[in-house]
Design brief:
79 residues; mainly alpha
């Protein structure tokens, strides 16, 4: 399982927008434009592609976390 911890500028702004409150795709677009003071205007496709990638990455991290938890539980049981 390969994880890519590097976020693009767009992904960073998108995560910051989503951290404030739950918002829909267009709301993300507007929040990013506001937060970047108009310096980053995302195309609709960029927002949804980034959300898809971030969702997939989150699922991989959740799976990795589960596997790590299982491994640690096995180690504690064996000790």
């Amino acid at each position: 399982m390969t994880l890519n911890p590097t976020l693009s500028t767009a992904e960073t702004y998108i995560l910051l927008a989503l951290a404030r409150r739950p918002i829909h795709g267009y709301g993300v677009y507007e929040q990013v434009a506001h937060d970047s003071q108009g310096q980053l205007i995302l195309a609709t496709g960029t927002v949804y592609a980034a959300l898809k990638r971030l969702t997939a990455e989150a699922a991989r991290l959740k799976r990795l976390s589960f596997l790590l938890g299982q491994t640690l539980a096995d180690i504690k049981t064996a000790a």
